[in-house]
Design a protein that fits this description.
The chain has 326 residues and is of the alpha/beta class. The chain is built from eleven helices and twelve strands. The longest helix is centred in the C-terminal third of the chain and has 17 residues. The protein binds guanosine-5'-monophosphate and manganese (II) ion (MN).
Length: 326
Amino acid sequence: MWEAKLTQAADFLRERDDFLVVSHVQPDGDAISSTVAIGWMLHRLGKTFAMMNEGPVPSRLRFLWKSGDIMGCGDGEPERKFRHVIAVDCADFARVGPAQRWFEDGYDLLNIDHHPTNDAYGSVNLLRFDAAATAEILYELAVHMGFSLDADIASALYTGLLTDTGGFRYSNTSPFVMEAASRLLEAGAPGPMLAEELLERMSMGQMRMIQRGLSRLAFSDDQRIGWIWVTSEDLEETGASNEDLEGLVNYPRNIEGVEVGVLFKENGAKSVKVSMRSAGRVNVAEAAKHFGGGGHVRAAGCRLTVPLAEAMEQVIAYLRKELEAP
Ligand code: 5GP
Ligand code: MN
């Protein structure tokens, strides 16, 4: 069944040409790695393709093979449209964001993802929900297609695995992840350099946001919910960018006794991005889904179009109820 799915996805790449590769808005390590990994495979097949994302490539990922070729999708009319689309790491079609304006009417879409909330919006769907990262599925696809992996694709796939498993620490770090990582190191992925650049190194903006965020750490009465909020002014005053907020939500979540850690990020007057992390008792994918988002059981997110204070009230009230449930 899974082998047949891999063959279907391989056929999608082999039998078509002139592709657009997209991933989710506000791209993370797995999103960019998966985009360039597909690009690498298409390049090896001698296909033409473009890679696109709504947001800029986070600076710490700019060393990845051809990541500099990932185009922005712009605000205006697209220059042209694509019939053959590959979407990676996008839990639902909305996550593709404004890049979907570049899709031709009647487009064919190959949907490759590992989020359990994925609703199979592609004409071909390569979905495996126990995969730690989309990069893990792409590793399987590359092996299935018989590519001999070089350091470029190995670095990309290793990056996706490393970032989505929090440095091979989260519960999604399966024996297969470690096996894949091992093969990728053999193929030339510079493991220690990637760990240093992607996990250890901090930008000044990131450190300033940690400083500010921790000064705001708040808890529910029973201290089972911990949260941090960040305002638009914080970002302006510290010069921090979106990628500098990565990891901030882990501070409340890592505290002994805390079941759910939440980060609220204000995006202008009436838009709030919410990140949730669970210690295991609460399924935060369900909580995020309740507010129109999605993700994984222990890591999920959503966006609310209300002022910051209201978003905090709504989400915390919901999580309180979840924790009260027997
Ligand atoms: P983060 O909190 O780091 O942005 O995201 C955690 C997880 O939740 C990721 O797997 C991400 O794909 C998912 N996620 C975050 N925000 C959204 C959202 O607005 N919609 C959906 N469907 N998933 C989200
Ligand atoms: Mn992912």
